[in-house]
Write a sequence for this structure.
């Protein structure tokens, strides 16, 4: 069964939404000078030979604005968690007292802030490329369906216009997310 116009638009929107969700997840993991549980969300711990997300092995809390506290459910995992944090690109040295791991988030230098903003912009550009790839793939699908006479030429043209509008709409969401994260990083 061939897809309808609504099916193609829905598929386009779903794929673009996935790209935005990925960008949002990546942006959450970028340090802003404040402690947040998102900083360690993507840290994988080698726990009994399996890479396990940190939040499945420990309770993560933010008792102070610049302090993260990680309390493992299994005390035996403490050293594995510490090693995983050291291997990650957080740039924070964990302090282990035998019961919990503390991560003191240092304030960011002006130079580091600008590097992080550049990193945010790179992530945004990757997301824009993903959105454009979705647009290209969906337009190819529309072309194929037009050739198979599923859509008339007018329907196909209108569908391409709608896909372009969706692309612009999602690119605006990328710009908004980047602006928000950049302001957050540059705040002192």
């Amino acid at each position: 069964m061939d897809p309808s116009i609504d099916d193609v638009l829905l598929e386009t929107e779903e794929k673009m939404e996935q790209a935005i969700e990925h960008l949002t997840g990546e942006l959450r993991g970028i340090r802003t000078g404040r402690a947040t549980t998102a900083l360690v969300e993507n840290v994988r711990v080698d726990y009994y030979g399996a890479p396990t997300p940190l939040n499945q092995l420990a309770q993560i809390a933010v008792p102070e604005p610049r302090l993260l506290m990680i309390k493992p459910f299994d005390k035996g995992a403490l050293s594995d968690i510490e090693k995983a944090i050291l291997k990650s690109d957080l740039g924070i040295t964990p302090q282990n007292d035998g019961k919990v791991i503390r991560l003191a988030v240092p304030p960011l230098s002006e130079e580091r802030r600008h590097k992080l903003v550049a990193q945010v912009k790179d992530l945004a550009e990757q997301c824009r490329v993903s959105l454009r790839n979705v647009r290209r793939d969906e337009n190819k699908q529309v072309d194929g369906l037009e050739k198979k006479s599923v859509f008339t030429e007018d329907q196909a043209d209108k569908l391409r216009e709608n896909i372009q509008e969706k692309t612009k709409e999602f690119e605006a969401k990328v710009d908004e997310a980047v602006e928000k994260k950049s302001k957050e990083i540059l705040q002192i």
Remarks:
- Strands lie at 44-47, 50-53, 58-64, 67-72, 95-96, 101-104.
- The chain has two domains: 5-28+109-186, 37-104.
- Helices lie at 5-28, 78-87, 110-147, 153-186.
- The domain at 37-104 is CATH 3.30.1360.40 (Gyrase A; domain 2).
